[in-house]
Amino acid sequence: MSDDEESQTPSAEKKASLEPTISVNVGESDNLGSLHQSFTPRQVHVISLGYNTDSGLFIGTGKALANGGPGNMILAYLAVCLGVWAHLQTLAEITIAFPTSGNYIDYADRWVDPALAFGAGLAEWLGWTAVFVSEGTFFVVLVDYSAKGSVPEAVLLSIFVAICLVVFSVPNQYFAWLQYIGSLVKVFLFIFNTLISLALIGGAGPSGSVTDGSVWTKRMD
């Protein structure tokens, strides 16, 4: 081969440089999902705390406490927390190793098949739809407790749907602040309820009775 032919033949390095590559070793993220982050880190942290303090914690705790008792509630809570911790730890390791700007279902598209990612996305949508319905039920229960049944449930559900439509229709930056404020309210409400519960257990209630350990083994019918 002549010198002219060698000069016209691209080297292996030139060929490799023309190939598209994705680097995730220097903090770069894949283009999967292509979502733009508009929430600040402070908002993300507070919203994460607020999402862990769901309305079911305030409404469903009473029934679970009456049926199972404090001991069973602690065991169930520890079991659920262990499963959630293992799941989030695994997801965090994957996200650190392979950052993405989209949802975690992008990993199903990347490593398995786009059909699995579609199914995971549909399942997530169905799950959040069920959460929306349960939140509407909680809203009716809370308001109806104070209204003493004077407001029809259909009216309360209509108000709840209207509020949700307004909240989810605002621009992203305003939505972030609404979620931020709502999460702060839930966190402070959780702390307030915890302190009040401890005070009532210690005898600060109207009757002044101190709660002993009988509720650990006796049903509160």
TrEMBL record:
Gene Ontology terms: cellular component: membrane
Source species, domain of life: Eukaryota
Region listing for Disordered, in residue ranges: 1-20
Major subcellular site: membrane
A GO MF label: amino acid transmembrane transporter activity
Membrane topology note: Multi-pass membrane protein
Domain Amino acid permease/ SLC12A: 44-210
Protein known as: Amino acid permease/ SLC12A domain-containing protein
Organism (species): Aspergillus calidoustus
